[in-house]
């Protein structure tokens, strides 16, 4: 029977010097720090174009103020005799401006989004998780001990959610139960999204749904069309088997369609289904997902209407996608298969961290020129030239991505991945706080995790107008995808945020 109510048992020294009874400022040449030199260098180069433009305007103004009546008459005389050239130049400028305005990509706005939060009876405490695993009789003592150790250092807390069927003893995974999980998550997020935005389902022109492991017939997108009675000419898409980075892929697809079909709304639904994909075997590499993946999903409302710019939260700036599937090692590092006893699960390779690191490196190297300030690009280029031409042992320069983004939403795939990115991108603990706390509170919710992280940052009141947000996700294939957003206003959490009743408890101190 289902056991829904299963409970657990009971000041540094100052740099100011003291000399003969009076305070003396420190020697700046002795105390200067490189990071401040770099910061000043960044400001100088970043505002170089502005300084040049202001200088040019000042010179023109000074020259114009020194002109007398005869100079103005002479200028007018020259313009009369070159009227044809001036008209041609004017027409060329008008034509070029019109062509640019007509052909440039339209803006895509994120009006709002809603993350699903499960009911309390589906929360999986450590004790409940292990006790249910033991009572299924599918795991031997070695497998149970492995899961216990994995869970202890996974970074997950005591309040993550598992599917309804996992609260039954024994578990009863079925197609009907998987459909129920999908409907509960997707409809729960969509109901709240429609309520918060006051957008009618009939106004939606584009629908993109991504779920990697559960692809029934009719599709998940068809389930949404049927539930909300969406219009008959809706352009709907269902993405399957694309892993944890599929949420950014779905955003990219919706963006491309919005560029073609003007004045419309697009909804992106990102989720994962666990009911039929829980592993009941003893292969260690396939037991890891049991300890990481949890129930979650998000519904996102995008618009290309100029009228929505005033109420939208964000504007989509860039999407960068990297695919490493041509490499066999990368292709098989996250692989759905059957074990020796015919039990299906997802196997995670021991090389996953290394492969993920290479994919992230490629992605950020490609994204860098689009987002980094000129100063960082210049330093990186000069260091690269120096290594190639003069000294191959020269330490490579790592661009400071903190100058390009104010907020980072790193896919909460696991503690080790977050640790590596924090180290290699030289981020501070506050930059990865949203990722760690999302992993702790909701677990790895696959493609929707980056949205729980953004919701965390909003709930903390940290996003101000003009801030840039970097969402980076990676998953099977192997793929690494990035999305860059620009905050259009001081963003506050929407009603029924997933962090609404618990943000005051975060951040929590994590003990691994």
Q: What are the main properties of this structure?
A:
globular; single chain; transferase; ACP_syn_III_C; 16% strand; transmembrane; EC 2.3.1.-; 43% helix; Peroxisomal Thiolase, Chain A, domain 1; 512 residues; alpha+beta
Distance between the termini: 34 Å
> Which spans of ≥5 residues are poorly predicted at pLDDT below 50?
3-34
Structural class: alpha+beta
What is the topology, as strand order, of the major beta sheet? 5-4-6-7-3-8-13-12-11
Subcellular location: Membrane
Keywords: Acyltransferase, Membrane, Transferase, Transmembrane, Transmembrane helix
Catalytic activity: a very-long-chain acyl-CoA + malonyl-CoA + H(+) = a very-long-chain 3-oxoacyl-CoA + CO2 + CoA
Main location: membrane
Describe the structure.
With 512 residues, the protein is an alpha+beta fold. It is built from 17 helices and 13 strands. The chain has helices spanning 28-31, 34-46, 48-65, 69-81, 83-103, 126-135, 141-152, 175-197, 220-228, 246-260, 284-292, 328-331, 352-371, 374-389, 415-424, 433-442, 449-459; strands spanning 17-19, 22-24, 109-115, 204-210, 235-239, 265-271, 297-303, 314-323, 334-338, 344-348, 407-410, 468-475, 479-487. A 9-stranded mixed beta sheet has the order 5-4-6-7-3-8-13-12-11, with helices on both faces. The longest helix has 23 residues, at 175-197. The protein is globular, with a radius of gyration of 28 Å. Mean pLDDT is 85; it is low at 3-34. This is 3-ketoacyl-CoA synthase.
């Amino acid at each position: 029977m289902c056991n829904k109510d299963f409970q657990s048992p009971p000041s540094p020294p100052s740099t100011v010097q003291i000399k003969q009874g009076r305070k003396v400022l420190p020697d700046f040449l002795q105390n200067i720090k490189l990071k401040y030199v770099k910061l000043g260098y960044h400001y100088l180069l970043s505002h170089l174009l502005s300084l040049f433009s202001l200088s040019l305007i000042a010179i023109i103004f000074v020259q114009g103020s020194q002109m007398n009546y005869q100079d103005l008459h002479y200028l007018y005389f020259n313009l009369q005799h070159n009227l044809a050239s001036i008209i041609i130049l004017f027409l060329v400028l008008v034509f070029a401006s019109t062509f640019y305005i007509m052909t440039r990509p339209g803006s895509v706005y994120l009006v709002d989004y809603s993350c699903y939060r499960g009911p309390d009876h589906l929360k999986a405490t450590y004790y409940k998780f292990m006790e249910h695993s033991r009572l299924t009789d599918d795991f031997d003592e070695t497998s149970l001990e492995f899961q216990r150790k994995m869970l202890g250092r996974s970074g997950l807390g005591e309040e993550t959610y598992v599917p309804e069927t996992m609260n039954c003893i024994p578990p009863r995974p079925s197609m009907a139960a998987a459909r129920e999980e999908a409907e509960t998550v997707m409809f729960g997020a969509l109901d709240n999204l429609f309520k918060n935005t006051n957008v009618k389902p009939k106004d939606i022109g584009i629908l993109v749904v991504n779920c990697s492991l559960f692809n029934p017939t009719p599709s998940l997108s068809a389930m949404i069309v049927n539930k909300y009675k969406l219009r008959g000419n809706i352009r709907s898409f269902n993405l399957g088997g694309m892993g944890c980075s599929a949420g950014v892929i779905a955003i990219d697809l919706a963006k491309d369609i919005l560029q073609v079909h003007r004045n419309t709304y697009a909804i992106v639904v990102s989720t994962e289904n666990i009911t039929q994909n829980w592993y009941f075997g003893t292969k260690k590499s396939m037991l890891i997902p049991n300890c990481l993946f949890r129930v979650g999903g998000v519904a996102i409302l995008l618009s290309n209407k100029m009228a929505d710019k005033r109420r939208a939260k964000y504007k989509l700036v860039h999407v960068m996608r990297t695919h490493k599937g041509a490499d066999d090692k990368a292709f098989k590092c996250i692989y759905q298969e059957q074990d020796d006893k015919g039990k299906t699960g997802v196997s995670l390779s021991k090389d996953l961290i290394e492969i993920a690191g290479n994919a992230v490196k490629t992605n950020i190297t490609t994204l860098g020129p689009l987002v980094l300030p000129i100063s960082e690009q210049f330093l990186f280029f000069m260091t690269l030239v120096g290594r190639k031409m003069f000294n191959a042992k020269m330490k490579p320069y790592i661009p400071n991505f903190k100058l390009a983004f104010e907020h980072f939403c790193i896919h909460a795939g696991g503690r080790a991945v977050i640790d590596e990115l924090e180290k290699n991108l030289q981020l501070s603990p506050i930059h990865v706080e949203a990722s760690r706390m999302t992993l702790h509170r909701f677990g790895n919710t696959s493609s929707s995790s980056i949205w729980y992280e953004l919701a965390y940052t909003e709930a903390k009141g940290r996003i101000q107008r003009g801030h840039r947000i970097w969402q980076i996700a990676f998953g099977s294939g192997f793929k690494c995808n990035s999305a860059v957003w620009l905050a259009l206003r001081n963003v506050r959490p929407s009603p029924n945020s997933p962090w609404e009743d618990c943000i005051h408890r975060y951040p929590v101190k994590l003990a691994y």
